[in-house]
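can u do me a favor
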């Protein structure tokens, strides 16, 4: 095919295209306006009446032309380097970082957590809650922030606080069993963001949180409690974000940590999945599988306080109540006074301990303790009535040898009455 034949075919094709454009009311000026962002188009008549000259000028996109350069990044300050890495032409802080697998699919972001606990206190059984204060860290990799290629001589990480954090994408992790929480700090909140040369991001936050703990008091005060802290991903499901505990020391405690009422015997940590659907609605309007981390502290109650302030007084009161069995049968005022005093002492002792228990468990435990403690007093009262009225009336019950003796010689009357009662 000759060059002339090629020109003829191109010309005929252009004429057909122009006719279609006219039929569909396509305005060339409108087409030129649409291309203004990336270039321009111009039609001009040629010497051939059946042919047109088309000139297309392509220009670079304004977003790319205005994007700050990362060349010679070693000479930039930390603020300038982060400003250029997170410029809108390169970085979208609303989008999580993505990495491609071998099959070409996008892998979820792996976020690794670590919790260092400074203080653990206020394990209040009446409110079923406890307070934890510690350092919470999240680590993940954002390839968009790697600056090793641009600044090979820069080996130190970039560190900053609130301003640096606001320019980055950070995972939204919340405490699922939280009652209240706050970020600690004096002038500024203690939130440290560290970016390493390979793109690893470390978010460190000092927090104080009050968490719910569902306690079991079946064996109070010899009970063992398990209080759990739950961390969940709020916005992204497992297809976008997955939570993991750090391999080394995921949960650790300060060496100076002390508890007033409990002994810390260990901790457990776990990774799981929470399903959010139309029924559970654990994540609002968001449905799917969400990654969850949890760690549980194992506690045993310190029983020394209850032995000294509860069990020993109870034993002493019960022992004193037995004195009535050695009193003479006709000493009714002494028996009555001792029985009433014993009963009131039991009630006062139980009321002094009721604040240590939650209301559902308080009723059950008080019933058991009161029943066990009041049993000796009830037996003593029953013995007094039975011995005074039914078995030992003054006219018949006393043996002949005791009737003629003075009162101070009748010390065996109570013992004889007891033997006589068993005989009957």
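np, heres the sequence
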């Amino acid at each position: 095919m000759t060059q002339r034949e090629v020109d003829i075919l191109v010309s005929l094709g252009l004429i057909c295209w122009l006719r279609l454009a006219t039929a569909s009311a396509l305005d060339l000026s409108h087409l030129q306006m649409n291309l203004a962002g990336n270039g321009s188009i111009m039609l001009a008549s040629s010497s051939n009446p059946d042919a047109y000259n088309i000139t297309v000028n392509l220009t670079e996109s304004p977003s790319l032309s205005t994007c700050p350069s990362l060349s010679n990044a070693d000479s930039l300050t930390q603020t300038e380097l982060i400003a250029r890495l997170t410029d809108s032409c390169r970085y979208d802080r609303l989008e999580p970082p993505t990495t491609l697998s071998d099959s070409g699919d996008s892998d979820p972001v792996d976020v690794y957590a670590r919790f260092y606990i400074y203080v653990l206190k206020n394990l209040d059984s009446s409110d079923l809650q406890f307070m934890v204060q510690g350092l919470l860290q999240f680590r993940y990799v954002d390839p968009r922030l790697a600056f090793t290629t641009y600044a090979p001589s820069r080996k130190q990480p970039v560190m900053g606080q609130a301003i640096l954090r606001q320019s980055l994408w950070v995972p939204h992790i919340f405490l699922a069993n939280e009652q209240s929480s706050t970020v600690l700090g004096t002038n500024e909140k203690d939130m440290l963001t560290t970016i390493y040369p390979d793109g690893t991001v470390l978010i460190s936050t000092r927090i104080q949180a009050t968490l719910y703990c569902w306690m079991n008091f079946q064996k109070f005060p010899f009970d063992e409690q398990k209080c759990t802290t739950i961390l969940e991903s709020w916005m992204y499901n497992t297809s976008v974000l997955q939570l993991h505990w750090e391999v080394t020391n995921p949960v650790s405690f300060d060496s100076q940590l002390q508890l007033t009422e409990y002994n810390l015997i260990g901790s457990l940590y776990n990774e799981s999945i929470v399903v959010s659907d139309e029924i559970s609605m654990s994540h609002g309007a968001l449905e799917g599988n969400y990654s969850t981390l949890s760690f549980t502290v194992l506690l045993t109650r310190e029983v020394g306080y209850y032995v000294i302030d509860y069990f020993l007084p109870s034993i002493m009161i019960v022992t004193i109540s037995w004195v009535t069995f050695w009193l003479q049968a006709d000493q009714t005022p002494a028996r009555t006074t001792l029985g009433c005093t014993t009963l009131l002492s039991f009630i006062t002792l139980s009321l002094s301990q009721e604040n240590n228990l939650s209301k559902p468990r308080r009723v059950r435990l008080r019933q058991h303790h009161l029943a066990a403690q009041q049993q000796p007093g009830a037996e003593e009262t029953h013995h007094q009535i039975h011995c005074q009225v039914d078995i030992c009336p003054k006219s018949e019950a006393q043996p002949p040898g005791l009737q003629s003796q003075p009162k101070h010689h009748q010390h065996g009357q109570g013992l004889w009455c007891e033997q006589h009662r068993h005989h009957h």
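Residues 3 and 29 are 31 Å apart (CA to CA). hope that helps!!
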